[in-house]
Design brief:
116 residues, seven-stranded mixed sheet
Length: 116
């Protein structure tokens, strides 16, 4: 059972990245998926989440209008599309899956660096 976050990198301000959160050993469709980030010296904060029931999504005000999240059931993957990136988006990004019987999994984190 594993959750793998990937897709981070170095990008200039205004650029885009797409993060992937891929699962092995369990089906992401049954899990609410959250994206979190942690910048150096700061606490981990929630960025977005997508529910299981009706696909409703939540975005923190700091990323609203710039980030989007989606599921690809065939690939058992959830994506975080990040557009109009800002230097303050620089952080390690983590995905989290919460599902049946209070099961929860964390991905290992992927570094996003936005240069000004």
């Amino acid at each position: 059972v594993q959750l793998q976050a990937s897709g981070g990198g170095l990008v200039q301000a205004g650029g885009s990245l797409r993060l992937s959160c891929a699962a092995s050993g369990f089906t992401l469709d049954y899990y609410a998926i959250g994206w979190f980030r942690q910048a150096p010296g700061k606490e981990r904060e929630g960025v977005s989440c997508i529910s299981t029931s009706d696909g409703s999504m939540y975005f923190d005000d700091s990323v609203k209008g710039r980030f989007a999240t989606s599921r690809d059931s065939a690939k058992n993957t959830v994506y975080l599309q990040m557009n109009s990136l800002k230097p303050e988006d620089t952080a390690v990004y983590y995905c989290n899956a919460n599902g049946p019987f209070l099961s929860t999994y964390w991905g290992q984190g992927t570094q996003v660096t936005v240069s000004s």
